[in-house]
Design a protein that fits this description.
21 helices, mainly alpha, 2 domains, globular, Sodium/glucose cotransporter, 79% helix
Length: 489
């Protein structure tokens, strides 16, 4: 099999290109449907999302390049141990069940736009609000990078390298920022509804095809046992701790993606929100698990790939299925359309959220006299600036998609105590939350930097992510400070 063979011919590439460009038309319709020129309308679609659109936009946003490219790559590198990723996504839904309904009720009463709006309402502490907004921004920037990298890999595979990685990232980023700034959340949600539907069909089709063509788990196990037997060894204690740590990243991190929080705000009513979350609980089994199987299939078929090459595990399996005649151009176009579109949905959601945070949590607090129309216009300009910088970094930074995902979550989980404790412990003080978040973040960043600089400090001490250690320290400091205050009083 030639690794540089294009996945699609000229006809397939043309169809895919037309589909991507059609998203701009959806953006235009989103602009036409605008009810008012306000931050609530632009960033939350007027708080009127119904069940189907809300579910599909949550789905298409959560399952993106990280799942379809990054998760398959990790499954290639770690073998059956990667099944823990199913629990990772399931734990995020569990966290939604715990906090989302209560946060939704507050958002409707006090008109929250960003995650930091809740923090400011609950704690009335400007430094804490700014810290939460900053951590959200850093996590979102990383989120955009992981998905732009995934887009680049796919464009190279689709065209056989005729369109280089950098050009593919630039072209698709331009489409995203155009339709996102045209219609805001409304356009993003409408494109998500289309893309989420195609994504479900595409992932299911590829999974079934793999089972029929190769023989399912039996074939995978036999091939890995013959070629890469070490991948079947039982997990060590250190690996088990890493599994637990990974689940913590899902529960305390993925559940607090800023764009996911904003979708909670956007629900038409609480019943719609709860129904969407209930259906989301089943999605790890029919999306994450299916993509782990794709990665394991790639390991069985193409052993010996290095870390960077393993990021293309999904595309290698698609190429092999195509050469075997198991799938035709139509199926490949379907899957690639779903993959690219889902990645684009995730990027534009993160981009929209970053724009809202900079506009609402930073600029509007400095210039409270600014009108809604001016802030909305400023937010669109900021979106273009953010995308330009993100494209540059996606092209020049060498990290794998999974490592970028981990770094993002290790920062984001530091905001979780502010939400959980703030929602359920009414007597908790802002100074305690601020101290805990500051110390936890400094610890996590310090460990990651020390490891990056070559010091003898692992990125995962005793198998547990630095960010999870930071979270433990974060919450420990919160309760220590609270107890000291009570003792003084």
């Amino acid at each position: 099999m030639q690794s540089n063979a294009a996945l699609l011919g000229p006809g397939g590439i043309t169809f895919l290109g037309m589909y991507i460009l059609s998203l701009i038309l959806i953006g235009w319709y989103g602009k036409k449907a605008r009810a008012e020129n306000s931050l609530s309308d632009f960033y939350l679609a007027g708080r009127g999302m119904g069940f189907l659109v809300l579910f599909l936009t949550l789905y298409a946003t959560q399952y993106s390049g990280n799942t379809l490219v990054g998760f398959a790559g990790r499954a290639y590198r770690e073998g059956f141990h990667a099944i823990v990723l199913v629990t990772l996504l399931s734990s995020a839904v569990g966290a939604f069940i715990v906090y989302a309904p209560r946060l939704y009720r507050l958002s409707q009463k006090y008109n929250f736009i960003t995650p930091a709006d809740y923090i400011h309402h609950r704690f009335k502490n400007n430094p804490l609000t700014i810290l939460v907004a900053s951590l959200c921004l850093m996590a979102l920037a990383n989120y955009v990078l992981t998905n732009l990298k995934a887009i680049g890999y796919i464009v190279v595979a689709v065209t056989g390298g005729a369109i280089p990685f950098a050009y593919g990232v630039i072209a698709l980023s331009l489409v995203m920022v155009i339709y996102e700034t045209l219609g805001g959340m409304r356009s993003v949600a409408w494109t998500d509804a289309l893309q989420g539907s195609i994504l479900l069909i595409g992932v299911f089709t590829i999974f079934v095809t793999i089972q029929n063509e190769y023989g399912g788990f039996g074939f995978i196990y036999d091939q890995i046992q013959m070629r890469e037997p070490y991948q079947l060894l039982p997990p060590t204690l250190n690996e088990k701790l890493t599994w637990f740590s990974t689940v913590c990243l899902g529960f305390f991190g993925i559940a607090f993606y800023p764009h996911a929080v904003q979708r909670i705000y956007s629900a038409r009513n609480e019943r719609t929100l709860k129904r969407s979350i209930q259906v989301m609980a089943f999605m790890p089994l029919v999306t994450t698990l299916f993509m782990v199987v794709v990665g394991l299939t790639a390991l069985a078929l193409f052993p010996g790939l290095d870390r960077q090459a393993s990021e293309g595990a999904t595309l290698l399996v698609l190429k092999d299925l195509s050469m075997r005649g198991a799938i035709g151009t139509g199926v490949i176009v379907l899957f690639l359309s779903a993959t690219i579109a889902a990645i684009m949905s995730t990027v534009d959601s993160a981009l929209l959220s970053m724009s809202s945070i900079i506009t609402k949590d930073f600029y509007a607090r400095l210039k409270p006299e600014s009108t809604q129309a001016y802030l909305t216009k400023l937010g669109k300009i900021i979106s273009w600036a953010i995308m330009g910088l993100s494209v540059y970094l996606a092209i020049v930074l060498p990290q794998t998609i999974w490592r970028l995902l981990e770094i993002k979550l290790e920062l984001l989980i530091q905001v979780a105590p502010a939400f959980f404790l703030g929602l359920y412990l009414q007597k908790i003080k802002s100074s305690s939350i601020l101290m805990g978040m500051t110390v936890g973040t400094i610890f996590a960043v310090g460990v990651m930097l020390a490891n990056k600089l070559g010091m003898d400090i692992p990125a995962k001490p005793w198998g547990i992510h630095a960010g999870v250690w930071g979270l433990v320290i974060n919450m420990g400091v919160v309760f220590i400070v609270e107890k000291l205050k009570k003792d003084k009083s």
